[in-house]
Q: What sequence folds into this?
């Protein structure tokens, strides 16, 4: 797949386009400063997982308060799954344009010519930070530090194997988290806001809950584990009640953390200077109450792509308003830039439009538009009144919000027009999308760390993944010298790199000699230290997981490699195996040593 923008669809296809936004508004008039921006994005939380939207199974008072103090969008749309929504928020463009087609193994990355909301606000003088699940690339410059966020703390994969004090990424370096992950992310966000209270800041908080594994501290789980639920999905017989209870407990924990953010802004006397935005990345990750809508995570139907959107800015956005026109994640970058009074830096045309007139009540009329939802070749189209599903069926979402009655025969002309729009969108954006030839960059002239995890590797021979979902997996069953792991890596900058291996191996199997090859460079080392640890993570699960368990892998320095820019291809193999296996493999970390003491 070429690393370039796909040309714009013609206006007849119904996409509203802008190349930038006007910087005519945004500086806080009372304080003479531009507003701060805090964006909270939750993971696998459906529209219905809030008491704000009528769910009586849980209580989310802090999120409800945000809506009462600001604006709530009635119909706001995201993508069916995680990484595409994040890409659309970050770029203001439909996710196929940025090369995002999967949720792991490289397909979650945004093309490097994309400009992000981090770039836009950073260039306008904002302090920028992201805390949480990135899910749009790990190796710099795909890493958040390379996409306009000067400070990053979290993890870059699609899901993580343990939510209690796990290994995390702090500006590229592996560190140990402290406590429950989203509590930890919130702590870092609050510290960042306090440290930057005297300048405008952009804080992006992409939480990773209630995505599985279903883990939540006792305080919230104990309140839900035996709770009788009064509201159920339209297909109630398909509900997994322990999973539902765990998800709702996780959502109440999210609400508690949102309350902490609000309280911190009050304590710092920044509430009136700060735009706070809250939304979710897709429909619910299970069968549970969701307002009688059809579909859940992974679906392009209403229930799979409808998300809450709340925006609060005291004194500017009228409290308690409900915005009726449809909107989408692609609109957030141009909207927030417009509200802040800064130009969008992207040189590529956006699919999103500024919602500022709706939020500030300055638009007496709002034109209808078409919003496209896509996943794995399936496309649906939403207008203000109708949805054309990915099978070409038409529904009146005003009269039939549950998508129960196909009216394509009654409104044949409307159905035909939307089918044509869907075909044009597919023809323009989808060809070649999954033909991904982008290498994983190894090293950089201005960035020290590059992780090459098992997630991004390809197994050869008898090697097996610990789980079919690559994100947080590791390789096992390494029993032959014919086995190897390869990466489509390309060295981005000349330099001397320290190589560190993260592994597990019982004492009976130590002694294997391994060889790492990068282009024409080779490094040979012998594993002499045992590290035999069990799988973990399950001790915190509230219900059985589908993803891989994890281990507390050990790290060992293998040595140093002199690498040459442009060399492509990376492989790890064993030259000798004295025991029954080589090791269980998690990742290799490359640390640039140029102008740095080699002992670091």
A:
């Amino acid at each position: 797949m070429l690393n370039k923008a796909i040309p714009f669809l013609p206006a007849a296809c119904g996409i509203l386009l802008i190349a930038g936004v006007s910087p005519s508004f945004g500086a806080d008039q009372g304080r003479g400063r531009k507003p701060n921006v805090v964006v909270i994005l939750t993971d696998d939380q459906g529209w219905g997982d809030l008491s704000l939207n009528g769910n009586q199974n849980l209580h989310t008072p802090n999120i409800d308060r945000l809506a009462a103090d600001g604006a709530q969008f009635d119909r706001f749309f995201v993508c069916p799954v995680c990484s595409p929504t994040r890409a659309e928020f970050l770029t203001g463009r439909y996710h196929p344009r940025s090369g995002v087609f999967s949720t792991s193994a490289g397909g979650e990355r945004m093309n490097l010519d994309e400009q992000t909301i981090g770039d836009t606000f950073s260039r306008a003088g904002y302090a920028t930070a992201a805390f949480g699940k990135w899910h749009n690339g790990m190796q710099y410059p795909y890493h958040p530090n390379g996409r306009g966020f000067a400070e990053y703390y979290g993890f870059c994969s699609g899901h993580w194997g343990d939510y209690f004090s796990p290994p995390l990424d702090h500006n590229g370096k592996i560190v140990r988290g402290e406590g429950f992950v989203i509590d930890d992310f919130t702590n870092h966000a609050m510290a960042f806001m306090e440290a930057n209270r005297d300048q405008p800041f952009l804080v992006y908080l992409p939480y990773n809950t209630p995505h599985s594994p279903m883990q939540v501290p006792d305080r919230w789980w104990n309140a839900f584990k035996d709770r009788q639920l009064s509201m159920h999905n339209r297909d109630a017989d398909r509900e997994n009640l322990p999973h539902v209870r765990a998800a709702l407990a996780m959502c109440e924990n999210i609400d508690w953390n949102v309350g902490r953010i609000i309280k911190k802004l009050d304590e710092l006397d920044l509430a009136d200077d700060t735009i706070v935005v809250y939304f979710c990345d897709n429909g619910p990750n299970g069968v549970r109450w969701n307002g009688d809508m059809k579909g859940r995570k992974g679906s392009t139907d209403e229930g799979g792509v409808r998300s809450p959107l709340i925006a609060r800015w005291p004194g500017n956005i009228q409290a308690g308003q409900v915005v009726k026109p449809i909107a989408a994640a692609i609109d957030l970058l141009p909207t927030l830039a417009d509200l802040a009074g800064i130009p969008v830096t992207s040189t590529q045309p956006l699919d999103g439009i500024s919602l500022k007139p709706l939020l500030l009540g300055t638009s007496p009329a709002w034109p209808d538009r078409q919003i496209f939802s896509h996943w794995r070749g399936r496309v649906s189209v939403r207008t203000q009144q109708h949805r054309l599903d990915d099978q070409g069926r038409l529904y009146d979402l005003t009269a039939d919000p549950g998508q129960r009655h196909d009216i394509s025969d009654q409104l044949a002309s409307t159905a035909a027009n939307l089918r044509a729009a869907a075909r044009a969108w597919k023809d323009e954006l989808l060809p070649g999308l999954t033909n991904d030839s982008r290498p994983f960059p190894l090293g950089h002239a201005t960035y020290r760390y590059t992780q090459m995890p098992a997630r991004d590797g390809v197994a050869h021979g008898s090697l097996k993944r610990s789980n079919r979902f690559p994100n947080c997996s590791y390789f096992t069953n390494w029993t032959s010298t014919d086995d190897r792991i390869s990466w489509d890596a390309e060295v981005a900058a000349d330099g001397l790199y320290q190589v560190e291996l993260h592994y597990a191996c019982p004492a009976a199997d130590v002694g294997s000699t391994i060889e790492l090859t990068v282009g024409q460079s080779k490094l040979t080392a012998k594993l002499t230290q045992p590290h035999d640890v069990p799988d973990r993570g399950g001790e915190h699960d509230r219900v059985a997981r589908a993803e891989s368990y994890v281990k507390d892998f050990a790290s060992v320095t293998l040595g140093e490699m002199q690498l040459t820019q442009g060399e492509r291809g990376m492989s790890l193999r064993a030259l000798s195996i004295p025991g029954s296996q080589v090791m269980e493999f998690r990742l290799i970390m490359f640390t640039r040593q140029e102008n740095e003491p080699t002992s670091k």
